[in-house]
Amino acid sequence: MYNLFLVGLVVLVYLVVTLFLYVYQRNLLYHPVENNYFGDKLIVEIEKIQIITKDNIKLLAWYHEKNINKNKTILYLHGNAGALENRIHKINHFKDMQVNFLLLAWRGFSGNKGKPTEQGLYEDARSAIKWLIEKGILEENIIIYGESLGTGIATEIAQNKKYAGVILESPFTSMVAAAKSKYPIFPVKLLLKDKYESDKKIKNIKSPILIMHGEVDKIVPFWMGKKMFELANNPKYSYFPKNDDHMLEYNDDLINSIKSFLKSLN
Questions:
Q1: Which of 81, 154, 168, 194 meets the CB 3.0–4.6 Å disulfide criterion with 34?
Q2: Integer distance in angstroms from the first to the last C-alpha of the chain?
Q3: Could you tell me which of 164, 139, 126, 148 has the C-alpha nearest to residue 78?
Q4: Can you name the CATH fold of 2-264?
Q5: Residue 60, CA distances (Å) to 50, 57, 67, 183 in order
Q6: pLDDT at residue 39 greater than cutoff 80
Q7: pTM above threshold 0.90
Q8: Taking the domains of the chain in order of start, what are their residue ranges?
Q9: What pLDDT band is residue 2 in, cutting at 50, 70 and 90?
Q10: SS (H, E, C) 104-126
């Protein structure tokens, strides 16, 4: 009887935790108020603009323009945590590159209204592309840059397009696989609402692609970045630093990899 009680208790706890994971999964996935901004100062000029989505959400974005006719334009799609300020240490390096850029804040992030979902973030990114095209920037002059969660959105919108290039920083194969690595005893494939199945889409990307992933990544396993590189079409390039974690160090090696990639697109 006692053993039966223990079994019943374990099953009950399992079901309660499973229900919790299902109900609060988007709180576990999206962290708009998380802050790892360390006071970096902008040294590149930006214009704060608003992008309006089809479902009438106004999104904050930072835009920097050098020359839209001579230079490629990077659409930067950030990860699942923090505000635009958290990426200052990265976009400061774009100052020394011959690129324009648009850094987009997702719905629910950086003071934007709305709640993040997979389909909602796809709409946000497509709205940013629409804004760039209306600005007079050609599709073939746009580079899609996805960071972490942003790689899932980048992979989605880059399918069957003629973008100049795609950069994936710390990509995952799918959110199902990523969740399984964190919660192996739960039926995550059934529970997940936002699946971001990038491994099924990357073959549809015909643009040149650069994949960057730290080999000691403790959040998104390195094997996922390596797998995405194996699945990608040519021409493809990689930057796999041996000692970097999920947050890649924006050092000379990484910057030179991006610069070399940009040069290959001209």
A1: 81
A2: 74
A3: 148
A4: Rossmann fold (3.40.50)
A5: 5, 10, 22, 34
A6: no
A7: yes
A8: 2-264
A9: low
A10: ECCCCCCCCCCCCCHHHHHHHHH
